[in-house]
Amino acid sequence: MANTATQMGISDEIAIQIENMNKWYGSFHVLKDINLTVNRGERIVICGPSGSGKSTLIRCINALEEHQQGKITVDGTHLSSDLKNIDAIRSEVGMCFQHFNLFPHLSILENCTLAPIWVRKTPKKEAEEMAMHYLEKVKIPEQADKYPGQLSGGQQQRVAIARSLCMEPRIMLFDEPTSALDPEMIKEVLDTMIELAEEGMTMLCVTHEMGFARQVANRVIFMDAGQIVEENEPEEFFNNPQSERTKLFLSQILGH
Amino acid sequence: MTNSSNASYVRTEMLGEKPAPVGQTGIIRWFRENLFSSIPNAIMSLVALWMIYLVLSHVLPWIFQSSWNANSLKECRAAIKEAYGEGTHGACWAVIRERFLQLIYGFYPSELYWRPNLAFIGMLVALAPILFNKLPRKMLGFTALYPFLAFWLLWGGSVWLPFMIITGFVLGYVAFTMLPHYIGTLGATIAAFLVPVLFWLLLAGPFASGMQSIADVGLEPVESAKFGGFMLSILIGITGIVMSLPIGILLALGRQSDLLIVKAICVGFIEFIRGVPLITLLFVASTLLNYFMPPGTTFDIILRVIIMVTLFASAYMAEVIRGGLAALPKGQYEGADSLGLDFWQSTRLIIMPQALKISIPSIVSTFIGLFKDTVLVSIIGLLDPIGLSTNIRADAAWNGIIWELYGFIALVFFIFCFSMSRYSMYLERKLQTSH
What we know:
Number of helices of chain B: 16
Low-confidence stretches of chain A: 1-6
Oligomer: heterodimer
Helix content of chain B: over 70%
Order of helices and strands of chain B: HHHHHHEHHEHHHHHHHH
Mean pLDDT of chain A: 88
Distance between the termini of chain B: 37 Å
Low-confidence stretches of chain B: none
């Protein structure tokens, strides 16, 4: 059971609640009976073999993927097919992708100000100040006038984080944010994420960075074949895995 | 060097940057590398040079040993013979000189030439802020008004007619921006279509004649039959180009839509138009369309042709843009979605700018094709430059002249099309954001 130390900064308020969620791609059952409750301020790392549905799971939370059964509630808003609800949830939930998905035709600054200006109707000047604030936070304010194509992968991912933060989201989703990066750049992105975690952001990360999981996660979730196989706090999860599947997975990725 | 006793190697200082080796330049080297790098290459170069010489040695004397002052082909030939000797085949440019105004304006009344001239200058001013985004954005206001201004300048008539058309658009816009609050977005969109149409059908006529009786402002009307020459080509071509891009964008979006009926209509339209030759559509415009109109209505022939050309080009445009949309990574849609942008925002701000950028070369090709296709209107009897050239050649004085007329028409078309092509290259360079 979680001890008091790891519960620090976590409120009783529920940020995300997923109840009996099922999803199919055509006839392929990708997510099976997912139940997950995330409290505000919690940092959750989701890991598992490829094809286990972990990315699909977090993409369901901001409706990038549609689920067919079950109920998802994000920040008190029930996720239905109503477009207004979906847009409202998306503007509260930030997301970082494996391939960054920055907008190559816009400068770094414009990438960051776009959503605040058009979705939040923030005045341009204010949006730019906020963008510079978050670019400083991810330590690349000097790149503001460049274009994404001129930046390294690690810098691009940090811009993507800043871009999400400019919407001042209450929840951040990370979909394998370091998988497309060179080893030397992984650290700079993880440092940014750790800093974010320390400030109490509610985070769901799909990642294979087990060091990161140990350091910041309150809970680690292991998925296989579309279902949650094991869920525990990091120390227990790594030192004392219960399921055979988890043991096998951990031995594969920590074995060398 | 490493050896067996000392296998490890540690660099103690990093190397600085050195300038790249100076290129071995020089004209002889350039010739050797580009034209005579091998024996087959050298032979091909020599053959090519010889062919260029052959063409130029015949064409250049024809162009320059020519006559500019004559009233008929016979006079022209005589003048060339006199100036350059027996057996010289010079061009008779006099025909261009004599019929220049006709080739430009058709049979537009000569005392009113200032109107198309002004419309042409206005067109350049109106296009400038679209083509070059460094110009002040306020100029776009003029761009929005320009179509009505040009319509009024070219055809003349009461100023109140274009005024009423603008009013219709303004009413539609007002309906679209004010009403969503009361009747929802869909209702407002429908209202934005219905309000102007109802206004034009029911109120615009009485209003316009009422205003006309109060303030009689207008230009002398010029009927469409008098339009001709390059003025007509530019009128049809530019209107088609400007209208086909937005319609093409909507069709391309419609074709990708999840809404089944919208998708079916767009696919049906695109496939039908692409499956039919333009000339058939023009025949429909010139003859059949009037059968579908209520009796007594006259629907201007140039307007009908413009509509057909626009529809034709928009179908091609839609497919070109669909190509651009397909080339865009799915991540761009997801990136936009994840930030909470709605469909139209993400389309306008993220998807379309990139899809259009990818499709610039094909879009401009379609524009160029459309502009050149305007000469097909000569087949339904409009007097575009090709139609006029047939008339000119039927004139007893110029009977038998071919190359000069078509050469001149080709040159003017080339200038327009080449400018478009160069502009598209400029645009591609300007929009280049990855290095």
